[in-house]
Specification:
The protein is built from 21 helices and 18 strands. With 557 residues, it is an alpha/beta fold. It folds into 3 domains: 137 residues, Glucose Oxidase, domain 1 (3-Layer(bba) Sandwich); 103 residues, Orthogonal Bundle (Enzyme I, Chain A, domain 2); 249 residues, Phosphoenolpyruvate-binding domains (TIM Barrel). Bound molecules: phosphoenolpyruvate (PEP) and magnesium ion.
């Protein structure tokens, strides 16, 4: 049906992408500029930016930094004092001018090259403090470039109310900064069904569509957008009819949510015996509180990397201890699975000066990174052991285990942390349950062997799918190849659950397959013990489980 003319002018196109979350939102577009200057070498008007523009951009950068230093507490302000000093460095003042003169390039390209060369030279230092300065150099280079282009600095933490954020892509750290009270939805050109930014959007109840080609050329800041996330559709400047339809869908969604509410206190059991938990995947204490309100039986996955990203230095033991304890206390008496750091991949940590990798998802990620940077790992393990003593309900889980030696190496380090804590008289839990994520096909194939050593499994189907099918989980071009219900993935999942059952250890699932309405019946037949899902899917998952033959419920109103 053709809609009436838009309330806001000409009715715009309808774009299709990949459905990300369950909600529906109407809001005003806020188009996020490219976050940095990677790939800016092609011909562009930037070529015309010369020495005059460069001098002005340097001056604006200084003014911004002086403003930040004055506005921020001393500790944060100190970081920007370093940036201010860097702006005086000949690498940013004299050398770009020389380069422009010699090669005829524009100011933007000259700054880009200067920043990259300076970053490289700092990355080669032995001293970790100096190596870490490479991230500051990158920041300063990006600031100058933004000012050269006349772009505003985007403050993602304070966007206007009813915003729909439109971007080429969002990094997990950008997504984690969004405030759900301001941002109703997210639409990105890049990203796939299980990209980490999307998982955060789900936890915050936002409407999200990813892999939405041409959204950046079709939308400008200020356009009205209707995001129908379940359908993966984005309506640009919808007409009167479409807006009415959108409001209707939003009301229906709210009514459904209301109906599901009565399932918050329902407890599920296998008819053959044993509890079935529907837990939450979270990334922060705030999300834990939200998950508890939404009826989570526990936390099946706390992605701790969100404590580590988007900051200048890694969190210390005390800070980590307090966060882990807080989450465990929110879920007092219910199980809380805390996963050790899964950085790398699409979650690099600037302060670790990790080398750029050609294939980061096949690189130094998760447990591999922790084993390579043992001091960092030890701090987290000590914090976890202490928090487990204080709260009692914490289980520790190692991600991305492929070979038994990795699990043993991680456990040995854990044992040595216990000895260290015991020598210093610090209270810790001596025997927390230790589990592993099964998310690499190698581990799935060796599930029997692992089941003899681990206290529990949690199947990470997001990575298991991408590694089994060789289809990048974040690349919309291959999203049709990425399918957690592919027979090969299902066969691996079945084998993992059977191995766990043979050895009598519980088997959880924390990948997105656990909330897939078509997969849930099968998974419950196989005997999954905990379905850990994003908060917006907890009650829907319970509702589907409730309808299964082999499931019994208590507490249905
Ligand atoms: C998974 O891989 O399925 C998983 C839950 O971990 P993440 O999505 O954080 O990689
Ligand atoms: Mg994973």
């Amino acid at each position: 049906m053709k809609s009436d003319a838009s309330l806001y002018g000409e009715e715009g196109p309808v774009l299709a992408g990949i459905s990300g979350t369950l909600s529906i939102a109407l809001g005003i577009a806020w188009v996020l500029k490219k976050p940095d200057f990677e790939g800016e070498t092609g011909p562009s008007p930037e070529k015309n930016l010369g020495p005059g523009e460069l001098a002005a951009a340097l001056e604006t950068s200084k003014e911004q930094l002086r403003g930040l230093i004055a506005a921020l507490p001393a500790r944060e302000g100190a970081i920007f004092s370093t940036h201010l000093n860097l702006l005086e460095d000949p690498a940013f003042t004299r050398e770009p001018l020389e380069r422009m003169e010699k090669t005829g390039c524009g100011a933007a390209e000259a700054i880009r090259q200067a920043s990259e060369e300076l970053q490289k030279s700092f990355q080669e230092f032995d001293d970790p403090y100096l190596r870490e300065r490479a991230a500051d150099i990158k920041d300063v280079g990006e600031r100058i470039l933004r000012n050269l282009r006349g772009e505003r600095e985007e403050d993602l933490a304070s966007l206007p109310p009813d915003t729909i954020l439109v971007a080429a892509d969002l990094t997990p750290s950008q997504a984690a900064r969004l405030n759900p009270r301001q941002v109703r939805g997210i639409v990105t050109e890049g990203g796939g069904k299980t990209s980490h930014a999307l998982l955060i959007a789900g936890a915050m109840n936002m409407a999200a569509v990813v892999g939405c080609k041409n959204i950046l050329s079709a939308v400008k800041t200020g356009d009205l957008l209707f995001v129908d996330a379940p359908k993966g559709k984005v309506y640009v400047n919808p007409g009167r009819e479409r807006i009415r339809e959108g409001r209707g869908k939003m009301e229906k969604f709210a009514r459904e949510e209301g109906r599901y509410q009565k399932l918050e206190t329902v407890r599920l059991f296998k008819k053959e015996g044993g509890r079935i938990l529907v837990g939450a995947n979270i990334g922060s204490p705030a999300e834990a509180e939200f998950a508890l309100q939404k009826g989570a039986d526990g936390i099946g996955l706390f992605r701790t990397e969100f404590l580590f990203i988007d900051r200048k230095e890694m969190p210390g033991e005390e800070e980590q201890y307090l966060v882990y304890r807080r989450v465990a206390e929110i879920f007092a008496g219910k199980p809380v699975v805390i996963r050790t750091l899964d950085a790398g991949g699409d979650k690099p940590l600037p302060y670790l000066n990790m080398r750029r990798e050609e294939n980061p998802f096949l690189g130094l990620r998760a447990i591999r990174l922790c084993l390579a940077r043992e001091p960092l790992f030890r701090i987290q393990l000590r914090a976890l052991l202490r928090a487990a003593a204080a709260a009692g309900n914490i289980r520790i889980m190692f991600p991305m285990i492929a070979s038994p030696w990795e699990f043993r190496a991680a456990r040995d380090i854990l044992e040595s942390c216990k000895e260290e804590l015991s020598r210093s008289g610090v209270p810790f839990l001596p025997n927390p349950k230790i589990g592993i994520m099964i998310e690499i096909p190698a581990a799935a194939i060796l599930a029997d062997e692992f089941a003899g050593e681990a206290d529990f499994f949690s199947i990470g189907t997001n990575d298991l799918t991408q590694y089994t099918l060789a289809a990048d989980r974040g690349n919309p071009e291959v999203s049709s190849y990425y399918d957690c219900k592919h027979p090969a993935v299902v066969a691996l999942v079945k084998g993992i659950i059977e191995a766990a059952r043979r050895r009598g250890i519980p088997c959880f699932m924390c990948g997105e397959m656990a909330s897939d309405p078509e997969a849930i019946p099968l998974l419950s037949q196989y005997g999954i013990d905990e379905f850990s899902v994003s908060t917006d899917r907890i009650l829907r998952t319970k509702e589907i489980l409730l309808r299964q033959e082999n499931v019994r419920a208590e507490g249905v109103l």
